[in-house]
Amino acid sequence: MAESKKALLSFQADVAAWMKENVPSDPGFLLPLSFLEVGTEQQLDFLRAWQRKVWEAGFLGMHWPTEYGGQGADPDYQGVVDRELGRCNAPIMFNTIGLGWTGPLLLEMGTDTEKAKYLKHILSGDEIWCQGFSEPDHGSDLGAVQTKAVRDGDEYIINGSKIWTTLGNYADHMILLARTDPTAERKYDGLSFFLSPMKVPGVDAVPIRKVTGEYGFNQVFFTDTRIPAETLMVGEGKGWGVAMKTLEYERGVTAGQATGHWMVAIGIDDLINDLREFERDGAPVFEDPAVRDEAVGLIMEAKALSLSARRMGVPALTSDFPMGLPLSSKYRGTEWSRRMKLFGAAMQGAQGALYVDDPDAHRGGFWQRAYFSNFGATIGGGTSQVQANIIAEHVLGLPK
Amino acid sequence: MTSVLGSVSLKFSDEQSMLMDVARGFLNDKAPTDKIREFLESDQGYEPQLWKEIVDLGWAGIALPEMVGGAGLGVSAVIPVVEAMGHALLGTPLIDSTLAGQLLLRAGTAEHEPLLEEIAGGRIATVAFLDGGDWGGANLALDIAQNGVLNGTKTFVGCGHEASLILVLGQCDGEPAIAVVDAADLKPDAVSVNTLIDLTKRTAQIDFTGVQAKTVLTGERVVTAIRDYRLLGALLTAAEAAGSAARCLAVIIDYLKTRKQFGKLIGSYQALKHPTVDIYCGVEDARSFCYHAASLLNDEPLSHDAEIACRMAKVSAGQTMSYAGDRAVQFHGGIGFTWDCDSTLFIRRGQWSHQVFGDAIHHRKRLASLLLD
Q1: What residues of B are in contact with residue A303 (Cβ under 8 Å)?
Q2: What is the pLDDT of residue A258?
Q3: Rounded Cα–Cα distance for residues A79 and B282 (Å)
Q4: Residue A299 to chain B, least CA–CA distance (Å)
Q5: Is A255 a member of any domain?
Q6: What is the C-alpha to C-alpha distance for residues A393 and A387, in angstroms, rounded to an integer?
Q7: A233 secondary structure, DSSP code
Q8: CB contact under 8 A, A391 and B280
Q9: Cβ distance A180 to A192 under 8 Å?
Q10: d(CA B91, CA B73)
Q11: Are B315 and B347 in contact (CB under 8 A)?
Q12: Would you state the pLDDT for residue A333?
């Protein structure tokens, strides 16, 4: 066996042992299913302490440079950590917009000053990041962003509103896409990208209650908000390119994330194992032919998703549509997940009508909550319908 | 606890890669669509000269062991070739001969090696499996007497009109058996050709009554070999359908990028775009399942994971091809409804691929038992 493989296996054993000792038990209150749903101070404090603990143990940002708080290792090492976190059903690494999107973006496009200023605090969880892309009137049509940034000496003055801002009420910084030139011929050329401070006068974050009954999103209002001009990234009018790069990280098209453990992974085995205890027509639910057939369909899709991920590593089997598998993975994965969770809720008979907080709800209304929550994934980061357009246009070459 | 997903292995060998390149190049060159249309009207459905070239390339023996003159690469290496033939919409005896070779390899003994050598050398072989339309039935109605004389009829025999070696499934003393028949021993008028929905394919009904078998295979090995023949048949059909669906997708994309209505390219309408994306995703899944299944095959009896993989491949590719052909006709509008439009070939291939070696419902029913019980 190659040395590198041996080292990786030995590392895996270390991580597994550490997890066994340190993964916290049920805190006695509802934990968020994903970073999109951190809605209370209690949840935030708990998750911040847990992320810090994992980072201090040397298990976060495995392949980020050591000078910025990372471990300077091969990306495979983070893969090992993430798998162990998932295997242990460990609480999520909540600072996702920093860990997953801003961090790798700064490593790729940021200045040394920006890297030194932000990266370590992302890993430790000291500084929370949010993302200011979507606006009330511009969800999926990101190029139409209207929030204004006007240069005034060493500052920009921001006016406008962002919405669906995950962690916006707790965040220290926002990756902000704003319009610096309303007269630009191409709407994209009028956009600029800022690493904007949130704890400054003129920023107001208002929490939004979701279909799940929980919080996590905010609408953020900027009213004559003054931010330092040095928070502009790359250059004025270059914001669209930076935003597109950010979306590549968000959609997992490009690797580099400090961790991928930002949601409670709910897999096909959870579904199949969990449903076995339900009955239909006085017999186990999986004796019903119609239920069996639906379950087979969901298992097949889960398997196809796993196989797609493997096929991405076989160039000879992806040459017909080289970007097809990565560009369709969000669309496929989130839609499958929605249907799988819906099935989990729908197969419970009358029990499926109970919701979180009802003492008789199966696993505290787990599937019902997970189903609702999953819309965050099929809508956020570009709706499934927009994803289908992206695949049609960028993979298949169909006209706009 | 083990995962219901089972194996998710996906390997692709240098040999598979090389065969894929060679097959794609050869078929682009030798089997363009106008040629395929010429073949439709012929007795064989292909040019005999083309089959000779295919045999010279060694494709008839890819899956057979080197000791009988094959390449020793197993069925895994036939997958990219069959996929490329599906892409070209070329029907030849390759799938039937490969499957007959596998059945004989898996059910036979050393005394059958000369026959395997002939199959590797291009002798057209096939399996007479179906008694009627039920792929899920035992299909053991044909009687094989102790003395090797057959009594009964088989139908939908692939290349039945031209196969020279026929492996006939029946029962001998109540047990499943395979009679090895030389087509030269068939009675005159024993073969009647079916009129098929897919004009690139050929099957026949064959009356074997009174025919003396060269040899009869029985026993546990035969039972396993028949099961594996059915699974490998499903897999090769899936690979072919995956290739045809990919080609169908390309034809749809091409039309959506050139046809204008209401002043716009029709490909800009989401009502056409999104189903086309669904076809694309289906093609990717079908290919993933086929090459996953190929990763799990060898000359041994198929494993539990391999059985699941073959069935999933057939479900995925069969449904995708059927849907792609259906949408190809619809998306081409009025012209799509005409005989001369290539969508005609695809919708017909879709209806062929859907049923042969069991449709999606057949395999999903069996997958439910394999996955949930």
Answers
A1: 5-6, 8, 289, 312
A2: 87
A3: 28
A4: 7
A5: no
A6: 10
A7: E
A8: yes
A9: yes
A10: 22
A11: no
A12: 95
Given A75, A98, A128, the domain boundary residue is A128
Report the alpha-carbon distance of residue B227 to residue A94 in Å, rounded.
51
ipTM above 0.90, yes or no: yes
pLDDT of the residue at A260: 87
Task: State the total domains in chain A.
Answer: 3
Of residues A131, A62, A51, the one with CA closest to residue A97: A131
Q: Is the pLDDT of residue A138 over 80?
A: no
Structural domains of chain B ordered from first start: 222-372 (1.20.140.10)
Inter-chain residue contact B268 with A399, CB threshold 8 Å:
yes
Same domain, A124 and A162: no
Q: Which residues of A are catalytic?
A: 250
Q: Is A122 helix (H, G, I), strand (E, B) or coil?
A: helix
List residues bridging with A130 in a β-sheet: A174
Query: Are the C-beta atoms of residues A219 and A161 closer than 8 Å to each other?
Result: yes
Q: What percent of chain B has pLDDT over 90?
A: 98
Closest residue on chain B to A298 (Cα)? B5
**Do A310 and A246 share a structural domain?**
no
pLDDT digits (tens, 9 = 90+) for A367-384: 999 999 999 899 987 899
Q: Is residue A340 part of a domain?
A: yes
Domain annotation covers residue A151: yes
| Domain range for A167 | 130-250
CB crowding B57-67: b at 16 or more within 10 Å, else e: ebbbbbbbbee
Residue range B328-343, pLDDT digits in tens:
999 999 999 999 999 9
User: Are A344 and A271 contacting, i.e. CB atoms less than 8 angstroms apart?
Assistant: yes
Report if residue A180 sits inside a domain: yes
Same-domain check for residues A138 and A206: yes
Residue B1, pLDDT above cutoff 70: no
The CA-to-CA distance between both ends of chain B, in Å, stands at 15
This prediction has a pTM of: 0.90
B94-139 pLDDT, tens per residue? 999 999 999 999 999 999 999 999 999 999 999 999 999 999 999 9
Q: How high does pLDDT run on average in chain B?
A: 97
- Residue B236: which of B362, B126, B76 has the closest Cα? B76
